[in-house]
Sequence to fold (481 residues):
Amino acid sequence: MSSMIDSRENVKTEDARSVRPFGIRDKIGYMFGDFGNDFSFIFASNYLMVFYTKVLGLSGFVVGLLFLGARFVDAFTDVTMGRIVDSVKPARDGRFRAWIRRMCIPVAVASSIMYLYFVRDWAYWAKLAYVIFTYLLWSSFCYTAINIPYGSMASVISPDVKDRASLSTFRSIGASLAGLVIGVLVPLIVYETDLERNQIVKPVSFTLTAFVFGVLAVGCYALCYFLCRERVFFEKKAGKVECAGELLKGLGRNKPLLALVCAALVLLLATLMGQTMNNYLFLDYFKNAKALSAVNVVSVGGTLLLAPFISVIVAKFGKKEAGAVGMLAAGVVYLLLFFLRVKSIPLFMALLFLGTLGTGLFNMIIWAFITDIIDYQEIASGRREDGTVYAVYSFARKVGQAIAGGLGGFVLTAIGYISEAASQTEAVAERIYTVATLVPGVCYLAVFLIIRFAYPLGRKEVEQNTAILRERRESENGKGV
Fold:
């Protein structure tokens, strides 16, 4: 690429004659990227535990061990993928964008084959081998190979902070739309009610739904690929290559990254355990699995309602400041649900909607935190490490996902949940309600404390870092770079 810079590792935007200016096509394309991601991620987060326990007959404890064990693999694959996208020579269609082209079909196939209903008839050891292989193939390899380049790409679609914030918002809209599709349709497709009002899963429907979502995911990835463009290019400096250990040691001194990693762990624990337990909550506490569709509409509705106002909120208050308030509000609402012991589904939905206004606000801006951290790391180290920084954060999110899934399985076992039973006792149902409300409430308050007191990049600091990098770019451009 003729616009690549020299060995000083500066970052330079491509000539406007080569790439069209940043605009709505990039935002929509980036939105569809997360839409595609979440056809597999949200489906797995919400329903893979149900498939493993209700269809394949595995215990929650075994599934929890699988989810936790897979994260040890991710400790290597996530960081390795980050180093690959940062170090390998870019393709003709970009450093990050090319990976969407390469991996869109493999990740869709890997996700689809996790839900083969006929595996329930296999021997127990064969079922274990199947779930271990297919889950690792999807989560630790295929999903990693597309998600890390996709997430890192936001920092090269535009160098402008406001553009990056808008990409974060549109990414969250994509996730919300995927959540809406999955949350509304899947309960109607995979659950049915028998004559005794027991909620039963339909195994074949899981498989068919997974393959349909795989096809839709490929279409979304294609839209992301064709609508987005990379505009910021950099080349690794010649000479000694920094080893992974030295790089991670440097990242370990990145206070904003460490704070956001901690927040991500707690946030994913709260969100994904809540989503997982909601399936059992409506199956066994409210005894109305179909109502999950309406509840999921309400959950996504809060996020979509806030979307038009995110830019104004961020501009006026700052990302850190607004996100902290959102987490505080969400924590208070979930604790209120816990203490009220709500029996009415409409009342539960109304309070849940208030909680999602808080989580939606935070989720709409969280991806812009990463681009701020990438800039902070460049100022601190003099190196541009988009993929590696994002990989560390992605790994933290996966750990949060695993802890949520693992603890979800352990908790189900601990509270006396019986996978083979058509219905659970009232005592078990009450315990499910406790976990589904108390855990998110406490965790969201913990995220508020982390963002408020440990995360250092408020609005003032972000503006200062942006100015420093702008002056650095202008200075080096003035030297003929």
User: Anything to note?
Assistant: Confidence is low (pLDDT under 50) at residues 1-17. The beta strands are 12-13, 191-193, 199-201, 232-233.
